[in-house]
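Reading group handout, session on sequence-to-structure problems. Before we discuss, look at one worked example. The prompt was deliberately terse, the way you'd type it at a terminal:

> structure Ion transport domain-containing protein

The input record follows.
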Amino acid sequence: MDRSNQKDVHALNVNLGLTKKRKERNFLQKSIVKGKQSGEKIISDLVSKTTSAPSSSLINQVYMVPLPDFTVYPEKFEDKRVEYWKIPFKLLKLLFWPRGHVLKKKHQMSPFLRMIRADNGAEIYDNPSMAAVIDFKWNAARNHFLRHALIYVVFALLFAILNGAIKGINFESNLGVNIMLVLFYWLGFYLLNTERIQLKFEGWRRYFSFYNFFDLFSVIFPLVINSLDIYFGTKFPDPDEEPEKFQEQFVQITRDYRLFIIFNSFAVLVMWLELFLLLRYFERSGAYIYILVNIFKQIIPFLIFILVVVLGFGHAMFVLLNDTANIDIKPDGSSFTITPTDSDSDQPLPYNVEQFINVDSKSDNFYTNFIKSVESVFFWTGGRWDQLEQWEFWPVDVYSIIGSILLVTILQNMLIAIMTGAYEDAKEIGRHAVLEYRAELIEDYETVEKPLGNKRGNPRYIYYIGKSDYIEEWLRKSEKARKNHENFLSKVDDKNPWDDDDDDDEEEDDDNEGGGYHYQDLSTETDSTASPRKEQEIPLSLYWFVDENDNKEKLSKSKSSNISSKSTNIIQNDGDGDETRLLKEKITSMEKEFSGKLNSMEETIKNLINIIQNQK
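And the output record:
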């Protein structure tokens, strides 16, 4: 229970039935058990002090996940132990070949796994029941993850030793190097095959996420770099054995070796980033990684916008200062005088040191090269304004002032504001992001082959305990979300454009042959006086009948009912005689206008029917 105090929700491994009587332990067994318990308590205390904040929340109730058989597989696909005689061969196979997926179809999976594959949003894990299910399944999946992480750590360590990233390790014979090379390529292809199996199981669309892509790249790139190192070692001659041949190829060797060092350093960075991303399965670091990745996703469009502005200023400065000799502009260098420190006189010596600036060299004049010009403009945001000290040229001052206002004052503060908003959005979901990461890992582990079977099984009910403040907060949020949803539905019902609840519709509904539907006039005509209800439109379906007589009858009924209801409603609601007279005149004009439109429509329909009959 001490370990569960550090988590909001902790699943319980409940064994139904009577407890078996334990066998008597001897002194050695008792000592081992006590030592194990003491060690676990010390580690738990250290973890709680370093990774968890103190909490006064109490655990005073046992809860149950209200989803029976949520983690239970179909009976014939239940995870079972392999026969005992096959286990050694299975374990031997695992040394050279990763475990494959045995549950590949949706009907073979439990409802829990189907939910993970169908919905990959972190919001669904903001639920004590889901947290309990994941906590129940995490113990077995955690060991699966730790094995994978340990393999990658050894793989990265071997790469660093073989490529000189760790200094001070020398081998007197080639035997040690060869053993490390074999081990490095074995682990590399083992990890690569693991990604291949996952790609085959997930498919291209589900596999290529940010994390899976980086997992794959962090294995392939070091393998390629180490292979290049071996290739360069066999291609170029040894300077001790063939010094003349080495001198002839010295320029090419230096150029290729420089390129190799650049890629080697990048491979080291990639592997460190992969180790950083592997921390996403831990509670605190997982939330930070989720927030960081989401902030980066949201600011990418704005970073591209800033890059366009930087390219514009960099190009302008390049055009202005790349050929200063033709416009007779010279940079201002610094001058110094020499004063001796070992004499009594403070008079300077008759020597003067002046700074010489080569305007054609990009090390002295950044703006003589386009790439360096863009880079220099980018570092304006960091406060590097070398151009103001070197050039007394008014366009340089103008560009610097505009760049200071646009890049530093406006765009940089906009970037900070966007990052703040992205952080606030991701912070709330970041608390549940670790559950999402763990759920994806559990899905991968649950579907792979397990020679020893699943020791904890898949019970019908999962019980858990939770901190009282966490449960109460979730209940408050759920109640608030439910009320908001009800209010939204009520507003949608009130604003339904196909529903007219006026009392005066009851009599008209009897004459409406179009069914129980009510149609509102959504036109923008404003020349008619406001009425208590909007006039009904003739359903378009009444216009599309092939029978001409039937068509006339329905149109006439719709016309008469529409006009009579309109006139009745308006006249009854206006008691004033003058207004009634004006309304009658307007109604009469509307009747004439509508009759003309109706007659023209009838003629059009007649013509269409005649054309169709002639074609037949």
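Points for discussion. First: The mean pLDDT is 73. Second: The CA atoms of residues 37 and 205 lie 46 Å apart.
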